[in-house]
Amino acid sequence: MHLDEIVARKREDWSRITGVPSLGAARPAPAVPGTFAAALRGAEVSVIAEVKPKSPSKGQLLAPERAAGQARTYAAAGASAVSVLADTPYFGGSPELVAEIAADPQVTVPVLYKDFLVDVRQVELAHRTGADAVLLIVRAVDDALLKDLLQTAAGLGLDALVETFTAQEIERALAAGATIVGINNRDLQTFSVDLENSARLRAGIPAGVLTVSESGIGGRADLERVAGHGFDAALIGENLLGAADTAQALSALLGVTVGGTA
Ligand SMILES: O=C(O)c1ccccc1NCC(=O)[C@H](O)[C@H](O)COP(=O)(O)O
Fold it and tell me: Where do the Indole-3-glycerol phosphate synthase domain residues begin and end (predicted)?
């Protein structure tokens, strides 16, 4: 199930939805613009840890009943932000899961709403969950819609992580006004992962724009490599979720041991 198929299904689903779905509960405090961006600044390289219950390439990664607690574990172990899948059919998440995590007082870090956005109403839905930021995938939309999504997010106080895979997509992201640009190491058509993609494309992003290397990042050596290429943050899912002890795996990745610095 590659990106084109996922995006086609999202378009079809949203063409049938009227209005913006209600989440059945009052959303928490309004989003504060810049919260997610601020969390990525400062540290040598920040980690956005992902709550991804399953994936098309790897199948089940996290038992559904453990998904909400996983965000707490990540926040306690030093993640700078958490990314939570809102997509149900392919990734096993939901907007309700994002809302539960965003409302959890023990999740003390910003929350990224992770879905395949093809309609501005999805940004409104993300806002209702209490998330701090949305992911926008350049390849999934045309330039006009990308701008609309970015402007809608900004109008609601949400930051946007704009995901790219090629130099041309980086240009499109910047032209649309992106201030946080992600470079995916996973080719979403073939699922092959190559960390060199981040290294190759990093120079195309000007100073002042926050940068995130996404996918396929494993141990401390990978994170150091990403930091060495000047990235502000790394988005990491599978390699943390596959560890026997995710808190310990994240601490090791960040170079800290419980109670001190490694
Ligand atoms: O993760 C997948 O298999 C996938 C398949 C199709 C479209 C998107 C997909 N992943 C989206 C992501 O952005 C990753 O979940 C994220 O970058 C974290 O990657 P990883 O650390 O490799 O889990």
Answer: 3-253
What DSSP assignment string belongs to 154-177? HHTT-EEEEEESSHHHHHHHHHHT
Q: Which residue has the least CA distance to atom 2 on ligand 1?
A: 55
The CATH number that applies at residue 174 is 3.20.20.70
Q: Which residues make Cβ contacts (< 8 Å) with residue 98, sequence separation at least 6?
A: 84, 86, 111, 113, 126, 129, 130, 131
Tell me, yes or no, whether 39 lies in a domain.
Answer: yes
Is any atom of ligand 1 closer than 6 Å to the C-beta of 222? no
pLDDT in tens, 249-261: 999 999 864 444 4
Residue 171 and residue 92: Cα distance in Å, rounded?
Answer: 32
Domain that holds residue 77: 33-253
Question: Which ligand 1 atom is the nearest neighbour of the CA of 236?
Answer: 21
What ipTM describes this predicted complex?
0.97
Asked whether 218 lines ligand 1 (CB < 6 A), one says no
- What tokens appear for 40 in the block? 């990525």
Ligand 1 site, residue 34, Cβ cutoff 6 A? no
